[in-house]
Amino acid sequence: MSNTSQSLASTRINALLDENSFVEIGGYVTARSTDFNMHEKETPGDGVVTGYGVIDGNLVYVYSQDASVLGGTIGEMHAKKITALYDMAMKMGAPVIGLIDCAGIRLQEATDALNAFGEIYLKQTLASGVIPQITAVFGTCGGGLALVPALTDFTFMESKKAKLFVNSPNALDGNHESKCDTASAKFQSEDAGLVDFTGSEDEIYAGIRELVSMLPSNNEDDMSYEECTDDLNRASETLENAVGDPAVICSEIGDDHVFVETKAAYAKEMATGFIRLNGMTVGVVGNRTESYDEDGNVAEKYADVLTARGARKAAKFVKFCDAFEIPVLTLTNLTGFKADLHSERCIANAAAELTYAFADATVAKVNVITGKAFGSVYTIMNSKALGADMTYAWENAEIGMMDARSAAKIMYDGEDAAVINEKAAEYAALQSSALSAAKRGYVDTIIDAKDTRKYLIGAFEMLFTKREDRPGKKHGTV
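The line above is the sequence of Carboxyl transferase; the predicted structure tokens follow.
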């Protein structure tokens, strides 16, 4: 161990990893620049501790910035340590975890420091889709450094002291920190959607450990399986009552009732996260219309519509799952697109991103229609048309162009209430029931909600060896 071993940066690493598992790499590296009397300053480790260790026995590579050395600023050698760690992680096929506490770019090194940022960005880009990348922000992460968490797959942020920004709150036109702290964990998780998880340092360590245990080590060597001790046929008699909140559904159907929700504070109308089914990690995307408090009462309600934020949140999550061969489950319950002036500026592009993500994904894809599935948004949410391998519908699910009564009013405009009611019932039976969709082959099986876990385990086991060829191309453009 170098003389950086007792720093806060190393303390954070040791708190994250299995006890006594950390091995430091490059502990004796120091800054090379001599401009502005830099040669007179001590720069142990050049402000970053790098190395490897294990989390629950799984190999991970970690770097942790040391704010006590030049503010943890990024310079030439600081970046070289991080990029060398990435090179090793990609060779070994193991995740990289970055613990951020940095004053930004090192001004004394100027263009060397700018080049250093670019080298880190490049390694992150090359590693994307090859190994999972996780960032945890404990201190300052500003300017160009804010791109580092944005280029990773999941971001944690300490809720009280951490700051994450491209431009500081006081540098924004018409804003100041007391008006809106755009660098806070609250803003970055709820408004910007950059941060997946917030909490205390200890909660962040626990969260990273849980997430790492869920994820494969890389895109080829899938280690995201563990022995299941839960009942594979376990029924949930009250599951249908939770139709509005996919988080509750996931907690009920997942092994040991565990659901790890990502970006829980952002675009709450769209839930994303991970469960295990018979020990296999599955990514879940679900439409939320309400959430519940600890007593089971409705705490918040959301419109049953697709929003631009929700679509982009889901699209990014599906792309991650597809890159790492994680099967995708969708819980569909929505009736249309959000309709307001702001949404209209971006909803088409956002919906196209989600459409593309589902259609482009070649992993096993299963859709469960839990509530309503009307119009184009039904098609977008992992429908058979986009390539869903199996589609289930709960018995009371509604699938079609629109609500039956609305359809009847359009088709029989001017008729009295009796006719409208009669035709609405007819339309519901012929065009908007789960049975009518099943007769057309758009639903494979209509299931009792309580048996959802059993059916999903069977479906994903059947799809385990799925292979799907696509047209040869460099990459898509959506």
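Note on the example: The CA atoms of residues 55 and 312 lie 31 Å apart. The mean pLDDT is 91.
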